[in-house]
């Protein structure tokens, strides 16, 4: 007997998996912030557009990660509608976006410890988001 799964059954599972991936990335970056700032004592600050140093709060980390994750999700969903090769195209785009995003902390981190921590937080988010969202893409 052959079993088929309807596309309507797959979509809720795909949405759930993508949501869990975004939430897991957010939790991971918040954990990274906790380890770096309160536990290790890193003064986590970045220069804003006006050049003034601003503290990087857990709210900023969570919101940034959520927005990045939702943008990744949206771009993957769009590519799935536009091309049969959404998975490899999205993966390349995601890695390029990660590389570009690293320019922010490298240029804006206040001090070497803050710069390294901000880069690490970007990498943690990507380590969860890229494989997690990629896994949910249709083949």
Rg, rounded, reads 17 Å
Summarize the main sheet. 2 strands, antiparallel
The tally of domains stands at 1
**DSSP strand count:** 2
Helix content: over 70%
> Structural class given helices, strands, pairing?
mainly alpha
Strand order of the largest sheet: 1-2
- The SSE string, one letter per element, is HEEHHHH
Coarse shape: elongated
Descriptive account of the structure:
The chain contains five helices and two strands. The protein has 139 residues and is mainly alpha-helical. The two termini are 24 Å apart. The chain has helices at residues 7-39, 58-82, 86-101, 103-108, 112-136; strands spanning 45-47, 53-55. It has one domain. Helix 1 (7-39) runs antiparallel to helix 2 (58-82), helix 2 (58-82) runs antiparallel to helix 3 and helix 2 (58-82) runs parallel beside helix 5 (112-136). The chain is elongated. Strands 1-2 form a two-stranded antiparallel sheet. Helices cover 76% and strands 4% of the residues. The model has no long low-confidence stretch (mean pLDDT 92).
Note the main attributes of this structure.
mainly alpha; 139 residues; transmembrane; membrane; 2 strands; two-stranded antiparallel sheet; 4% strand; DUF6069; 5 helices; transmembrane helix
Topology:
Blueprint (H helix, E strand, L loop, with lengths): L6 H33 L5 E3 L5 E3 L2 H25 L3 H16 L1 H6 L3 H25 L3
Antiparallel strand pairs: 1-2
Helix pairs in contact: 1-2, 1-5, 2-3, 2-5, 3-5
């Amino acid at each position: 007997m052959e079993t088929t799964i309807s596309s309507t059954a797959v979509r809720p599972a795909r949405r759930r998996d993508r949501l869990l991936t975004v939430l897991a990335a957010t939790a991971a970056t918040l954990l990274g912030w906790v380890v770096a700032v309160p536990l290790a004592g890193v003064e986590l600050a970045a220069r804003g557009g006006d050049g003034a140093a601003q503290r990087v709060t857990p709210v900023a980390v969570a919101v940034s990660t959520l927005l990045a994750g939702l943008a990744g999700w949206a771009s993957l969903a769009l590519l799935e509608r536009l091309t049969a090769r959404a998975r490899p195209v999205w993966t390349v785009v995601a890695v390029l976006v990660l590389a570009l995003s690293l320019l922010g902390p490298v240029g804006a981190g206040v001090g070497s410890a803050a710069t390294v921590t901000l880069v690490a937080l970007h990498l943690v988010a990507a380590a969860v988001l890229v494989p997690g969202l990629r896994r949910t893409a249709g083949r």
